[in-house]
Structure formats: C-alpha cells, structure tokens
Amino acid sequence: MARLMPPMQESSRLVVACRPADFSASAIARAVEDTNAHLVNLNVTSRRLDDGRLTVELRTNHRSASAAVRSLERYGYEVLELDSAADPVADATDEMLRNRAANLLHLLEI
Predict the structure, then answer these.
(1) What's the CA gap between 57 and 5, in Å, rounded?
(2) Is the distance from CB of 1 to CB of 45 less than 8 angstroms?
(3) Could you tell me which residues come within 8 angstroms of residue 12 by beta carbon, excluding any fewer than 6 positions away?
(4) Residue 52 region, left (φ>0) first, then alpha (ψ -120 to 50), else beta?
(5) Could you tell me which residues are beta bridge partners of residue 57?
(6) What is the pLDDT of residues 69-99, one digit of tens each?
(7) Cα separation of 32 and 69, whole Å?
(8) Cα dihedral angle (36, 44, 5, 38), rounded to 10 degrees?
(9) Rounded Cα distance, 14 and 61, in Å
(10) What's the whole-number mean pLDDT along residues 38-50?
(11) pLDDT in tens, 15-38
C-alpha cells in the first residue's frame, strides 16, 4: 500500500477497518484522544476489504499506540496494521505495571 503520510518521528501509524455506515472521523478522533494522544493525520484509503469495509490510515503523536489500539477496538474499529516506534522495553514495563496494579486491586477486593 502506498503511504499517504510522510515519515515522522515520535508517531505511530495505524490502519483500521470499519463498515462505511460506521465511519465517523470524529468518533475515531475521540477514541484516539481518549488516550491522551493527538490524531495528527486521518486518511480514508481507496483499499476496501473483501467484506466491503473501508480502511482508514491514522497517525498519532505517540510512539506507542497500544492504548490507542485498545480504545479504537472498544469503539468497534478493527486495527489491521500498526507501525510504532515504541521501545519494546518500555511496553513490557507498562504491561508489568498494569499486571501489578490489577493484582493489587484483586487483593484489595478479597
């Protein structure tokens, strides 16, 4: 697929899919901005999936788009591709901290 956006440091690129009737640029922006990231670019591509869904290419201003991916999926969008410049060690640390917080909350409920 040809890239519609020039390369940019400190950003992540995502490709999401949705039915044409479900496409809403404001809902996509809200899903990304709910994670304290900014939507830098949003492009509807000409590529359609076999089931007729649109593909939308996004760029956020965060190196790690894992929170944006989870948020977009909560809003009903399927993330097809993710190009992130995130540090895998930082992502592993974030995941470890989330697990520890979940374990603590579990212990507090007992």
Answers:
(1) 9
(2) yes
(3) 59, 60, 62, 63, 64, 65, 68, 82, 83, 84, 85, 86
(4) left
(5) 15, 43
(6) 899 999 999 999 888 765 555 566 677 788 8
(7) 8
(8) -10
(9) 12
(10) 89
(11) 999 999 999 999 999 999 998 888
**Nearest CA to 58 among 44, 48, 78, 75?**
44
Q: What residue has token string 């996509």?
A: 28
d(CA 89, CA 61): 19
**Percent of the chain whose predicted confidence (pLDDT) is above 70:** 82
> In the chain, how many H helices and how many E strands?
3, 4
The token pair at 43 is 């492009």
